[in-house]
Amino acid sequence: MNTWIHIPQNSDFSIHNLPYGMFMRDNIPRPGVAIGDSIIDLHACCKLGLFAELGFDTSVFESTVLNEFIDCGKDVWSRLREYLTVQLSSEGALYEFREKAIITRLNAQMCMPVKIGDYTDFYSSIEHATNLGKLFRPDSEPLLPNWRHIPVGYHGRASSIVISGTPITRPSGQSKAPTADAPSFGKSKRLDIELEMAYIIGKSTQLGKPISIENAEDHIFGKVIFNDWSARDIQAWEYVPLGPFLGKNFGSTISPWIVTMEALEPFRCESIKQEPAVLPYLQFTGNKNFDINLEVAIAPEGGEETVISESNFKYMYWNMAQQLAHHTVNGCNINVGDLMASGTISGRDQNSYGSMIEISQGGKEPMQLKNGETRTFLEDGDTVTIRAFCEKDGKRVGFGECVGTITP
Ligand code: MN
């Protein structure tokens, strides 16, 4: 598809993508759509009268988050996408007003795209759950008996989810080495990443009304990259019996651009066969997994980055529709702007694992960085960058980057 806007080759933000984000303009967060190295300023477009025919209340773009726009519903998201696609591939009103409505993306400061109400983290990669089971419970079966029957998850903390680029402070807490007699307090020595993706809820439900698996994807607006920073030493000591707490809630980072489900549609793929068969409310038809390439890189302070893992979202054992059907089967309600994370996405071999604790085999096998240093867990000053993109038939739809630097 041809467009009058310049799009560098291999750009994540091709005309097939059109992801939504919030960026700063004149010190106010404004809604935008990324295209190549540019941003279409949706607020400016409204002021210029560009969306007048689209049949929705354009005052939603006065907001400093996308929740109100998302709440307009799937038909509105589609109409705007269609409108922008046409405007970008022909010289119409957007072309005419391009100097006011389009700004450069490369030095734009991005902010949180949505106000996240509730956040849930799943545990849906069978490779990751197996690897972590072996490391945390070496004397028993790595997968607990419920794992192949339930998309296991926990309720996380929305307040500490931050936008890409926000520094992450190394957390302090209690931990207890296996050989120690008593716990001690101090800075985490086993600070890790979790390579995840997350989806943003696009349609709310009422308490008491479960979502059927057939309708589940209608409730998803789009996806972002998610780094669920984890303090393994704090986690190991605290997690029995109620699960993750301070080892997780000190920070998680999201990428700034929400890639819509419509843009991801061409990248559907088959799922892994689930055995034993799941209960009827979790049974699905059609392709519910997505082929999204994932990459994690670490750069030491002042040094060049080393890619430490390459994985893919298609490895998920439990898909998003199953997660949502399960999450709401008891009547739990969800709201526009809620965030549901996948859990760490690990592939089958050591260079596709989604966390350092897996790659280093619990801290025993250091990984080599290009500058000669090694890592088992993160050091202060390390910058972690996660990238994600889909590619098929010459179409590229990417997520950009999810970045965070560790500070003492
Ligand atoms: Mn996680």
Write a structural description.
This protein is an alpha+beta fold. It folds into 2 domains: 20-111, Roll (SH3 type barrels), CATH 2.30.30.230; 119-407, Alpha-Beta Complex (Fumarylacetoacetate hydrolase, domain 2). Helix content is 17%, strand content 28%. It has helices spanning 42-47, 67-71, 74-89, 93-96, 98-101, 126-136, 232-238, 261-264, 320-328, 356-359, and strands at 20-25, 28-35, 38-41, 102-104, 110-111, 119-122, 153-155, 161-163, 168-169, 172-175, 184-187, 191-192, 195-201, 220-227, 230-231, 252-254, 259-260, 268-269, 289-290, 293-299, 306-312, 339-341, 367-368, 374-375, 383-392, 395-407. Strands 6, 7, 8, 13, 14, 16, 17 and 22 form an 8-stranded mixed β-sheet that branches. The chain is globular, with a radius of gyration of 21 Å. Bound molecules: manganese (II) ion. Manganese (II) ion binds at residues 121, 194, 196, 228, 343-344.
